């Protein structure tokens, strides 16, 4: 009985931590990852040979917040990919819990909206856990330093989910513009506003 209680006491915190990952912090170097894109090809950070950084965004199909930011994510890629900061979108949700977030629906969504960026499926959810992602959408802006990808900003895309025209603080845009000038982002971290990631149970 005592042994069973000990095992339970050891495993329970581990399970709780798995559902609430701490993840990367500002200044951390990110490990490379390799995930399947909607075109069936595998994509990794190390593939971005000429990039100065990357706008890694955990997002999905079904979340109303993700939908509200969809065009803004497309615009981020169009604006900053030519400047060396491409968008890499990752769907971490469990499709058994949210069928609309299945790979098949990802392919359909990417085609309908003509995504100019890779839209990757995190089937094991390990990449999301490693990053410490908790919501969709949530941005991890990476700045390349030699062969390292360093976290420079974490959080929301901007300060107005409902109205892109009423944005006062464009956090990601401001952060990238600062990095392009060789400066630190004016804001390093904000609270991501969106749907919680649907973890496997």
Describe, in plain words, how this protein is organized in 3D.
- The protein has 201 residues and is an alpha+beta fold.
- The protein has a single domain, classed as Glutaredoxin (3-Layer(aba) Sandwich).
- Helix content is 31%, strand content 20%.
- Strands 2-1-5-4-3-7-8 form a seven-stranded mixed sheet, covered by helices on one side. Strands 6-9 form a two-stranded antiparallel ribbon.
- The chain is globular.
- Mean pLDDT is 91; it is low at 1-20.
Search tags:
disordered N terminus; 201 residues; globular; Glutaredoxin; seven-stranded mixed sheet; 20% strand; alpha+beta; 9 strands
CA radius of gyration: 17 Å
Question: What is the strand content?
Answer: 15-25%
Low-confidence stretches: 1-20
| Helix content estimate | 25-40%
Largest sheet data: 7 strands, mixed
Which outline best applies?
A: globular
Based on the structure given, which CATH architecture is correct?
A: 3-Layer(aba) Sandwich
Spatial separation of the terminal alpha carbons: 26 Å
What's the helix count? 5
Number of domains: 1
What is the tally of beta strands?
Answer: 9
What order do the strands of the largest sheet run in, or round the barrel if closed?
2-1-5-4-3-7-8
| Named CATH topology | Glutaredoxin
**Mean of the pLDDT scores?**
91
User: What is the H level of CATH, i.e. the homologous superfamily?
Assistant: Glutaredoxin
N to C succession of SSEs = HEEEHEHEHEEEHE
Q: What is the CATH C-level name? A: Alpha Beta
């Amino acid at each position: 009985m005592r042994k069973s209680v000990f095992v339970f006491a050891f495993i329970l915190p581990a399970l709780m931590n798995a559902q609430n990952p701490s993840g990367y912090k500002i200044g951390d170097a990110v490990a490379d990852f390799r995930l399947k894109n909607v075109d069936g090809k595998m994509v990794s950070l190390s593939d971005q040979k000429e990039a100065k950084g990357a706008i890694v965004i955990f997002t999905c199909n079904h979340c109303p917040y993700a939908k509200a930011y969809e065009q803004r994510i497309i615009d981020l890629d169009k604006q900053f990919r030519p400047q060396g900061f491409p968008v890499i979108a990752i769907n971490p949700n469990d499709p058994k819990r949210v069928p609309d977030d299945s790979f098949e629906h990802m392919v359909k969504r990417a085609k309908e909206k003509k995504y100019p960026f890779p839209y990757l499926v995190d089937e094991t959810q390990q990449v999301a856990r490693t990053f410490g992602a908790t919501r969709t959408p949530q941005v991890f802006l990476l700045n390349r330093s030699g062969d390292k990808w360093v976290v420079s900003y974490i959080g929301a895309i901007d300060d107005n989910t409902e109205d892109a025209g009423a944005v006062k603080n464009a956090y990601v845009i401001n952060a990238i513009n600062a990095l392009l000038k060789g400066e630190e982002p004016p804001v390093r971290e904000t609270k991501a506003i969106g749907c919680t990631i649907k973890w496997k149970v």
